[in-house]
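Project standup — Tuesday

K.O.: blocked on the structure for the chain from last sprint. Re-posting the sequence here as requested.
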Amino acid sequence: MSGEQKAEAKVEQAKGKLKETAGRVTGNEDLTTEGLGEQAKGDARETKEKVKDVFKD
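H.V.: unblocked you, prediction finished:
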């Protein structure tokens, strides 16, 4: 996985986790859901890059 893509995926996952936590603390369900969505998007990006690496070799 390229370093840049991996970093982007990790940042997206971290931002999502922060939003999820903030949403839970404040009782904001929309923010919690948005955070979970960002985490899933980061996970998907990371998985996509791993699959690309498998086929690259």
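K.O.: great, moving the ticket to review. The chain has a mean pLDDT of 92. Helices lie at 3-26, 29-56.
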